[in-house]
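tool_log.txt
---
The assistant was asked to compare two proteins side by side. It first ran the structure predictor on the initial sequence, then on the second. Raw inputs and outputs are pasted verbatim so the downstream comparison step can read them without reformatting.
(1)
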Amino acid sequence: MILHLSDTHFGTEQPEVVAALLQLAQEVRPDIAILSGDVTQRARRDQFAAARRFLDALAAPVKLVIPGNHDIPLFNIFARVFNPYGNYRRVFGRELEPQFSNQDVMVIGVNATRPWRHADGEVSAKQIERISQQLQRASPGQLRIVAVHQPVFVERESDKENLLHGHQQAIAAWAAAGADLILSGHIHLAYMRHLGEALPDVTRSLWTISAGTAVSKRVREGKPNSVNLIRYDAAQSRSCQAERWDFDAASSRFVVAETKLLELS
């Protein structure tokens, strides 16, 4: 089982939501937790320290974290130019594109942040090709996941400015290379979409799953904090079950809000 969370924005976290998410993880015991960027609000040392304490307490044996645009200093221009990942690496290590692979799953993290782009994300031709080569090395039974902060697909016209630069090339290449899921965050809206239905050039089953903000008060349009759970059994047919779990303020718990069976190629 995979726990996908994003946009924790430590520095704006809500203690009751943090506690509820830790409780959810304690109950479901995911095998892997993927935090797809915007770990902090302003890339400050104390915010990264709070994020580290949270992840240390999160009940998952494997934890993969990628940076988001908020994890690069905004107001400290010297650090943004000369050491943009200094505080991030101090807490999470030097690797900005973590990976994990076992007999059931392959997860590839992508660093799409660019200090000169502010909020926008970008994936280079070199990154696209490298990730494609890795995907092609996956075994037939593995669930193949690419995690990136900015979305490769959005549902609304007003969100198109948030799309990952290079997303069209990335989708085409990663679909051809055998990707099953592209996980993202950034816009604080949760959805699951079959890219083959949305984009005619995608000829195989490729899904994108976007996560809302996991624990931050920076919710959008009144949507609750949310995370995703992905259940996959390599011994079963090529499919997985994706669940959106929303924070319910009345019970101070995360509860299942949507379940979808994702058919894979």
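(2)
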Amino acid sequence: MKIKLFSYNQLDTYIHHLSGLTKFICFLLLTTTVMLSFDIRVILFVLILSFALFKVAKIKFGQVKLMLVYVFIFLITNFILTFIFAPLQGVEIYGTEHVLFTIGGPYVVTLEQLFYQITKLLKYLSIVPLGIMFFLTTNPSEFASSLNKIKVNYKACTALSLTLRYFPDVQRDYHAISLAQQARGTELSKKEKLSKRFKSILAILTPLIFTTLDRIELITNAMELRGYGKSKTRTWYAYRQLTRNDYVAMSICLAIFIASLLITSFVNHSIYFNPFI
């Protein structure tokens, strides 16, 4: 069976069997843990846990290859720009200066700056697998029903569900239009110049936009004909009760979050871990 890119796929794994609400809460707890800390030990722990869960979820590299390429480009660009605009940020944070070598002018490569930028890079890198895993292992309808059970307005939940379900449809439509354009002689392979390929892709976007607008109108009319929004509540076919595994997963993530706060407050006395003192 060919697995679609950027879409939910039902597999028999521990991660897939968790409630959408559980995965959302765990995602928030772990990402907040990483965002509130510059302790490389905490970040590395979350990073290793993220990739371990990635393996448990049986996510194929082919599913996320394109996404990882864009993430890698972003990380490298951010790494370079951070050094260009703040080459001594690490020195200011850690209060010491160990010069490795001088590039020229104000651009001095220090151990503190390198440590700071690597920590920052790992922060981004540890969040990416969590976001991908949440996106690819969560049933949109089940996730929306779970949010509604905790008193989130069901109209907002439905809108969220439709948005998540629509990504694979956009991908499928783009692929179909792309094949149709190539059948008419449009060259989209690597043999063509980048500028012409870019113009060809723009030509695909126009029918894709019109197709999207037509589908939005179709869904809107169908919902109006069925009286959607007339009642204050609605029923959900995809709702899943929280199980023991859900509570265990949330407890572990909450423990990691609390532990990171304790390390920040009582061990580091700062959001930064300073190995230079």
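---
observation on (2): The longest strand covers residues 99-104. The mean pLDDT is 86.
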